[in-house]
Amino acid sequence: MGPIATGLLMGIAGTAAMDVLAFAQARTGVAPAPNWAMPGRWAAHAARGRVFHDDIAAAAPVAGELRLGWAFHYAVGIVYGVVFALLAGPGWLAAPSFLPVWLFALATIAAGWFLLQPGMGLGWAGARTEAPWTGRARGLLAHTAFGLGMWAAAVAAA
Asked: CA spacing 20 to 30 A to 95: which of 30, 49, 79, 86?
């Protein structure tokens, strides 16, 4: 299997692992269930040229924003998986180790903290939320799950 196909599988598996964690947290009352409608709304407005909002919930609704949010979520995960597979190269893909993919997965949180969250009106790294440090910790845990999922897919593909 080539790096693009492996990266695609890694991105899907990583994103799915992140979702399993999110729904387990919601089921146990640790955190609310994810609502991908607002990131979907943000993605639609960003595609039309408006990246930053004071409050994405106050922005004009977009038809199918929940489906768009889920698609955006998985598309980003797939892009990350492919980018990592290409950067890691054939040596890593033949014998995947956890540390490099985990560090990469943690680094990907920067896009959420410094583009998506400010774009939705939540501030840098969720600074305008009710409990920013709780959100940041949950984000790091979610991205750890993402890294685990990507690594598991790479191991399976190897």
From this structure: 79
Where would I find the H helices in the chain? Answer: 3-27, 37-47, 65-94, 98-107, 109-111, 117-119, 132-157
Whether 54 is covered by a domain: the verdict is no
Length, in residues, of the chain: 158
Distance CA 123, CA 133 (A): 13
Give the domain extent around 101: 3-49+59-157
Q: Are 151 and 101 in contact (CB under 8 A)?
A: yes
Q: Rounded CA gap, 139 and 122, in Å?
A: 14
User: What does the pLDDT look like over 55-102, one tens digit per residue?
Assistant: 999 999 999 999 999 999 999 999 999 999 999 999 999 999 999 999
Rounded to whole angstroms, what are the CA distances from 99 to 89, 103, 106, 150? 15, 6, 11, 12
Token pair of 86, please? 């290409």
The CA distance from 123 to 38, in Å, is: 15
